[in-house]
Design a protein that fits this description.
GO biological process, one term: adenylate cyclase-activating G protein-coupled receptor signaling pathway
Radius of gyration: 27 Å
Distance between the termini: 69 Å
CATH topology of one domain: Jelly Rolls
Number of helices: 8
Helix content: 10-25%
Strand order of the largest sheet: 3-4-14-6-7-8-9-13
Main location: membrane
Oligomer: single chain
Strand content: 25-35%
GO cellular component, one term: plasma membrane
Largest sheet: 8 strands, antiparallel
Structural class: alpha+beta
GO molecular function: G protein-coupled receptor activity
Number of strands: 30
CATH class of one domain: Mainly Beta
Keywords: Disulfide bond, Membrane, Transmembrane, Transmembrane helix
Length: 522
């Protein structure tokens, strides 16, 4: 990874930051200000200039001069950290005569310009980092356009660009700071490890540098130029790439976050988790920290009962599913069971050989009156399987006043204007590879889902009113079109009463019982 850094043309370490490994010589000193050259000067207004020597008409200031090799810019960035001491390179944007990086109103973006005869702009947007260090790297080549990597993984691209005439400051050095244009609000934050390569790094090189920067520290030999060696006198133990994320998630974000921005940060976590093996204790810490951040989100009130509440809820559940699926896919070792409980949900992550299942059904959770049961015959083959189970404690309270016309439940849509509410816990089980279930719900094997009803006093009163008819639906959130929509396709309510429901389904996802109360005279 640091061999990749050694090939850079410019390097600014800026500050010594926990969790980000610097490029050091054999004495342990940071190689300050140069792989080739680089000097930073801090201004009083919170703007830091990064001087890179003679840059005019260079590939750095004018991408047209790059040739087919292209150019790469890399840095670590964090935002929304109002209480921490800001580093010398602080603010919400980085600009030069050839590019601009900024974060504003919950969105990060990179803009890249060419001048002269081909006046073009490439733009790529991404979720900005939260209060933890996030690695942002972008490459540009004339034939491939702009590529943005977040934490070592390709995040977004703009291969074609477009003609644009109002482009960048032709006289700017590289600068990072919080001074925006009039009327423009730039997010406070901090930058570290700013690097420029006068070539486009390959995806493998991007991953190698990111892994080295957050992992094992490698030393630069002062006697053999640009050759690398590891220390033998004071070895540095590897640092998990997950640790900065876990540390940031453990902060209380409510004091400085709106619900929209906090949800954006949670989504950014779900998209930016490193593709690295997770030891059991690290996986447990990540699950606990992430669900605590979800709890912080749910304690905010500015998203409740708004017009966008259903969309926010479905996005939140999808984000939780993504993080828990990452845990199951990257958990190190075999025959593991990760279990826990938080204010948000009880959860389990299991990796096992299905042939070791010596009972007729797998059940989650193993105790209680609300559960999902999967027949063992559905776990075909000899491949190892992973199971993720979540039983949410309070999310069902927020699914009320659902317009039946906004669902894929035909029976409910027939009663227009009679709103639907969740009347049970929300429960989820995901299995990889998928279990073999009978498409015919009268066949075998199928899922059995039992859910106790959690009725509010108002729901009880409506249900017991003899002038009303109560409709109970076994439903799930269908994400097939990108956003969660309640549907009952592939599910049937097989039994139950006003206190509980028994459902049969031919697929796995998030389930709940929905109630619709309709006057008998309708």
């Amino acid at each position: 990874g640091f061999e990749v850094l050694a090939s850079a043309s410019h390097y600014w370490p800026l500050e010594d930051v926990d969790g980000i490994q610097e490029f050091r010589d054999t004495n342990g000193d940071i190689v300050e200000g140069m792989v080739n050259k680089g000097i930073y000067v801090t201004e009083k207004k919170g703007v830091t200039f990064l001087f890179f020597g003679s840059y005019r008409n260079s590939c750095i200031s004018n991408p047209e001069a790059c040739g087919p090799e292209g150019v790469t810019f890399s840095f670590f960035w964090k935002t929304q950290d109002q209480q921490a001491k800001l580093l010398p390179a602080s603010g919400g944007r980085v600009i030069s005569s050839g590019f601009k990086i900024c974060s504003n109103e919950g969105e990060g973006s990179v803009e890249f310009y060419t001048r002269g005869n081909a006046m073009m702009k490439w733009t790529a947007s991404f979720s900005p980092p939260g209060p933890y260090w996030t690695h942002i790297l972008f490459t540009w080549q004339s034939r491939e356009g702009l590529k943005v990597y977040v934490n070592g993984t390709l995040n977004t691209t703009d291969p074609a660009g477009k003609v644009f005439y109002d482009y960048g400051d032709g006289s700017a050095s590289v600068l990072a700071g919080s001074e925006g244009r009039a009327g423009k609000r730039w997010v406070n934050g901090a930058f570290d490890e700013f690097i420029i390569w006068e070539r486009a790094l390959s995806p493998r090189e991007v991953q190698q540098y990111f892994t080295a920067a957050v992992g094992v520290q490698v030393l630069l030999s002062s006697t053999l130029p640009w050759s690398l060696m590891t220390t033998t006198t004071n070895p540095v133990l590897p640092t998990s790439a997950y640790q900065p994320i876990i540390s940031a998630l453990r902060q209380d974000w409510r004091s400085s976050q709106t619900a929209r921005s906090l949800l954006g940060q949670l989504q950014n976590v779900s998209r930016s988790l490193p593709k690295e093996s997770l030891p059991e204790h690290t996986a447990q810490s990540l699950a606990e920290a992430f669900l605590k951040a979800v709890e912080d989100f749910m304690l905010l009130s500015d998203w409740i009962d708004g017009p966008g509440t259903p969309e926010v809820l479905s996005s939140l559940i999808h984000t939780i599913d993504t993080v828990m699926a990452h845990l199951s896919q990257n958990l190190h070792g075999n025959s593991l069971t990760l279990e826990g409980s938080s204010a948000v949900a009880d959860y389990t992550v299991v990796r096992m050989n299905p042939q070791s299942l010596n009972v007729s059904h797998y059940r989650f959770p193993s105790r209680g009156h609300s559960y999902i049961s999967i027949p063992s015959e559905a776990f075909h083959g000899k491949a190892w399987i992973t199971i993720v189970g979540l039983l949410y404690h309070n999310l069902h309270y927020f699914f009320h006043n659902i317009n039946p016309e906004d669902t894929r439940i035909a029976e409910a849509a027939a009663y227009k204007g009679y709103m639907i509410s969740a009347s049970s816990y929300l429960i989820s089980v995901k299995v990889e590879p998928l279990p073999q279930l009978s498409y015919n719900l009268s066949g075998s094997p199928v899922l059995s889902i039992q859910l106790s009803h959690r009725l509010t006093p108002r729901q009880y009163s409506q249900a017991l009113n003899k002038s009303n008819r109560v409709h109970l639906y076994c439903a799930f959130l269908d994400y097939s079109n990108g956003t969660g929509v309640w549907s009952n396709e592939g599910c049937v309510r097989h039994g139950g009463d006003l206190n509980h429901s028994l459902c049969l389904c031919n697929h796995l996802t998030n389930f709940a019982i929905l109630m619709q109360v309709v006057p008998l005279k309708v």
